[in-house]
């Protein structure tokens, strides 16, 4: 029986992964929450990885603005700790799937970033995540996988969709930025694809390297908010477009976070659907994205 270790198992993506894995009797999942495994501790990581065939690392410093003022601490989790995981996997022969981000790119493109595009992060969070990516590709050239995702929303944690629907109960109108483009991605749909990637990695069908795990299509935060309102039966015109300079934040955000998916399809893996389709599926699910638990 294949054994998988899911780190960061209490987070939004981690919990969805465990739900997906629960439907696979041929797979045995070990859930490691932050309280159970601090991935910055190399000895603890080595012990946790032992006996597993695949490690999917969902543990991360996710506070983008906090990383700007605590870059060393953020990079310790998002970068150096990934090297601990990679070394442990190298010792045991386990595959490592590392979750990364669109923020490794500068956001100045006008076409979807391919997996091999040059990286140039514009904030501390992106720099730390890039350190993690480099550790995987350096230490696990044949068994390491980096999956970049973006604009995640889901049932098990704070996210943009849940925030918009919560604010809808408090305000008549919401001003939402319309000058950042990206690909909203349902965490449960991504979790399903990560399990498919793990299967393919173990079977030797998916070459190691970087993959982009985002939904197809593109929109802005304004477009996503309007779509969420419409699906909830609210008036989308309550959402008003604005610009990023109206909401200054410590960490700069890329203006363009649209990713290409060539390597995903080249490996024979099922690409994520268009973001409209997955948003509808999320709203129709038993745990829609506004039910934050």
CATH architecture assignment? 3-Layer(aba) Sandwich
| Number of H- or I-type helical stretches | 10
Counted up, domains total 1
Structural class: alpha/beta
Q: Report the span from N to C terminus.
A: 31 Å
EC number: 1.1.1.133
Function: Catalyzes the reduction of dTDP-6-deoxy-L-lyxo-4-hexulose to yield dTDP-L-rhamnose.
GO cellular component, one term: cytosol
Domain RmlD-like substrate binding: 3-284
Structure notes:
The longest helix has 22 residues, at 71-92. The chain has ten helices and twelve strands. The chain is of the alpha/beta class. The strands form four sheets. Strands 2-1-3-4-5-10 form a six-stranded parallel beta sheet, sandwiched between helices. 40% of the residues lie in helices and 17% in strands. Helix 2 runs parallel beside helix 4 (71-92), helix 4 packs parallel to helix 5 and helix 8 (221-232) packs parallel to helix 10 (275-284). The chain has one domain (2-157, 183-218, 255-273): 3-Layer(aba) Sandwich (Rossmann fold), CATH 3.40.50.720. One of its GO terms (cellular component) is cytosol.
Question: What features would you highlight for this structure?
Answer:
293 residues; Rossmann fold; six-stranded parallel β-sheet; 40% helix
Which SSEs are present, and which pair or pack?
Layout: E1 2-7, H1 12-22, E2 27-32, H2 42-49, E3 54-57, H3 64-69, H4 71-92, E4 95-101, H5 124-139, E5 144-149, E6 152-153, H6 160-168, E7 174-177, E8 181-182, E9 185-186, H7 187-203, E10 209-212, E11 219-220, H8 221-232, E12 239-242, H9 262-266, H10 275-284
Parallel strand pairs: 1-2, 1-3, 3-4, 4-5, 5-10, 6-9, 7-12
Antiparallel strand pairs: 8-11
Helix pairs in contact: 1-7, 2-4, 4-5, 6-8, 8-10
């Amino acid at each position: 029986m294949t054994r998988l270790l899911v780190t960061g198992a209490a987070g939004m993506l981690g919990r969805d992964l465990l739900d997906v894995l629960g439907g696979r009797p041929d797979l045995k999942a070990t859930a490691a929450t932050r309280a159970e495994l601090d991935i910055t501790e190399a000895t603890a990581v080595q012990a946790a990885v032992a006996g597993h065939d695949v490690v999917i690392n969902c543990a991360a410093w996710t506070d983008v603005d906090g990383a700007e003022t605590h870059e060393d601490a953020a990079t310790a989790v998002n970068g150096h700790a990934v090297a601990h995981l990679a070394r442990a996997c190298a010792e045991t022969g386990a595959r490592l799937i590392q979750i990364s981000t669109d923020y490794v790119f500068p956001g100045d493109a006008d076409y979807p970033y391919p997996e091999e595009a040059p990286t140039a992060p514009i904030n501390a969070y992106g720099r730390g995540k890039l350190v993690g990516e480099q550790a995987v590709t350096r230490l696990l050239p044949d068994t390491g996988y980096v999956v970049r995702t973006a604009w995640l929303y889901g049932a098990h944690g704070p996210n943009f969709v849940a925030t918009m629907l919560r604010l809808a109960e408090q305000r008549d109108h919401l001003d939402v930025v319309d000058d950042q483009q990206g690909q909203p991605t349902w965490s449960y749909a991504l979790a399903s694809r990560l399990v498919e990637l793990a299967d393919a990695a173990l079977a030797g069908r998916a070459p190691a390297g970087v993959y982009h795990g985002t939904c197809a299509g593109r929109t802005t935060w304004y477009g996503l908010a309007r779509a969420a309102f419409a699906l909830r039966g609210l008036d989308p015109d309550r959402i008003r477009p604005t610009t990023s300079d109206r909401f200054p934040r410590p960490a700069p955000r890329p203006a363009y976070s649209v990713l290409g998916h060539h390597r995903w399809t080249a490996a024979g893996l099922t690409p994520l659907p268009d973001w409209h389709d997955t948003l509808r599926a999320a709203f129709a699910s038993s745990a829609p994205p506004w039910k934050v638990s």
